[in-house]
Design brief:
Strand content: under 5%
Helix content: over 70%
Distance between the termini: 26 Å
Order of helices and strands: HHHHHHHH
Number of strands: 0
Structural class: mainly alpha
Mean pLDDT: 83
Radius of gyration: 17 Å
Largest sheet: none
């Protein structure tokens, strides 16, 4: 009983932490992204955003544990798909071509066993969150 209570408390704290970051930090990062930044500042902002996402996303941890055969790039692409980014937006953020992102999407679908299935990739990925 005590272990279950402790686990529930831990989960609640984790959820509050994630919620606070998403509500109190991410909006300002988004505003900075829309402002005029020089190339160095833009690069630093992208690094900050990527590192924050790695820290706060339990989705990434579940994906990397459940699908250890995913590359780091596939995990990043999957996370961006999960948050609703389009192929074009992902390509811009990662500074690669749309074709490269399409390849990663196909690899992700294949590794998840979703090839030839009419399953929305984003919806499927959201089921891990």
């Amino acid at each position: 009983m005590l272990l279950k209570h402790r686990e529930d408390d831990k989960k609640e704290m984790e959820e509050k932490f994630l919620s606070n970051i998403k509500e109190l930090v991410i909006p300002y990062v988004d505003k900075l992204k829309k402002s005029r930044l020089d190339s160095n500042q833009g690069a630093y902002l992208e690094i900050i955003e990527a590192n924050m996402n790695d820290i706060i996303s339990p989705f990434l941890q579940r994906m990397s544990l459940k699908y250890s055969n995913f590359t780091q790039t596939e995990i990043q692409v999957a996370n961006l798909i999960k948050v609703g980014k389009t192929t074009k937006e992902i390509a811009e953020v990662m500074k690669v071509s749309k074709g490269t992102i399409d390849t990663h999407r196909n690899n992700i679908r294949s590794k998840l066993g979703l090839n030839k299935k009419k399953v929305n990739l984003r919806a499927y990925l959201l089921s891990f969150a």
